[in-house]
What does this fold into?
Amino acid sequence: MGSRKETPEEQIERLKQEELKNNPFGAFSDGVNRSEYGNLTGLFGGLGWKGTGIIILLLVIGYIIYKLLN
It folds into this structure.
């Protein structure tokens, strides 16, 4: 089997994925901070599908409450 060295980009991505698994709330915080500067992918990429679904659900519920109160 060939032992191929990781490129710097692959190493950064591997370390990022390990950090996301070990510290999900830290990943959420990082995503929120990145989204403040226009990187929405950072927010939803760190959350995963469950977190993204919860945020979408909260936005829909907030919109419904807003419409009911107007």
